[in-house]
Amino acid sequence: MNWRERLRDAINRSGKKHSVIAWEAGITRATLSRVLTGTHAQPRFETIMRIAHAAGERVGWVCGEEGFSLDNHQRAKVRTVACILMEMTGGRQK
What we know:
65% of the residues lie in helices and 0% in strands. Helix 2 (18-25) crosses helix 3 and helix 2 packs across helix 4 (45-54). It is mainly alpha-helical. It has helices spanning 3-14, 18-25, 29-37, 45-54, 59-62, 72-89. It has a domain at 3-62: 434 Repressor (Amino-terminal Domain).
């Protein structure tokens, strides 16, 4: 899938009408249509970002970034590091 297909997919999965997505993204319905159909060949990245956010999707996913996952051991390590950093920076209220 290319970014336009992923963006269309995100909008469809959101269950929102295109008019709602456009309003939440701060663009016109016509602009949204042109972005999705490719009539607007090179929309600004900010426009794509706003549409993705209105659809409740990560911009990285729309752009094709692969996600990652952590196993339980890795998550435990991240929690430990976060606690250490909070202690060191005074971020934890006692």
